[in-house]
Amino acid sequence: MKTLPDGVRYIPEALDRTAQTALLQDVRGVVAQAPLYTPHMPRTGKPMSVRMTNCGPLGWVTDKENGYRYQPTHPTTGEPWPTMPKSLLDLWSRYAEWTDPPEACLINFYTDAARMGLHQDRDEEEARAPVLSISLGDTAIFRVGAADGGRTCSFRLSSGDIVILGGEGRMARHGVDRIIPGSSSLLKGGGRLNLTLRRVTKSA
Ligand code: SIN
Ligand code: FE2
Fold first, then answer.
1. What is the pTM of this model?
2. CATH of the domain at 35
3. For ligand 1, is residue 176 a contact (CB within 6 Å)?
4. Is 194 in the pocket of ligand 1 (CB under 6 A)?
5. What does the alpha-carbon distance between residue 125 and residue 154 come to, in Å, rounded to a whole number?
6. Backbone angles phi, psi at 180, to 5 degrees
7. Cα gap 35→66, rounded to integer Å
8. How far is Cα 26 from Cα 45, in angstroms, rounded to an integer?
9. Structural domain of residue 177, as residue ranges?
10. 89: how many CB neighbours lie within 10 A of its CB?
11. How large is the C-alpha radius of gyration of the chain?
12. What is the rounded CA–CA span in Å between residue 143 and residue 5?
């Protein structure tokens, strides 16, 4: 077992296949209302390789003009984000150790060539609450390192695994080096979904 930065928890097989299938159904329901779209980096306007959508009262978005932020509506449809499915609220209650419910669930979809550079989640006002991340579909090579620099380590995140960045690990640097194509049969067309639940506004 690798030594993870303090405050980073890895929970392999948190969801069994039945729970993964049920959650996937819920995600499909969200995507039917709030389609996946290609986000663009601040300033450069470079397209990201992952496609995204959100559910919950707030969603994380990025574009060339206004950069990283949370907003209550989908950037292309202009509609409010779909409500957060109960399955996700239940996972938060079970694992997050934070009383207030999550306000945002960012849904990232990775095709075979998609990746995500090393970054910190720092667009939330409430940085005391954890970030809870759920993986579905193909396996990812996930990379993580402490907030203040130093070495990073990588490990495989498989369908049904959960990672929690909380406490001292809340600002851990993390990213996805690559996806292992064909490693899961959960998504019919292949690929990986990652769901990140976050608290955005300050809890009392
Ligand atoms: C993210 O940091 O937004 C996604 C991480 C992941 O895909 O596991
Ligand atoms: Fe992140």
1. 0.97
2. 2.60.120.590
3. yes
4. yes
5. 28
6. -100, 100
7. 21
8. 31
9. 8-198
10. 16
11. 16
12. 11
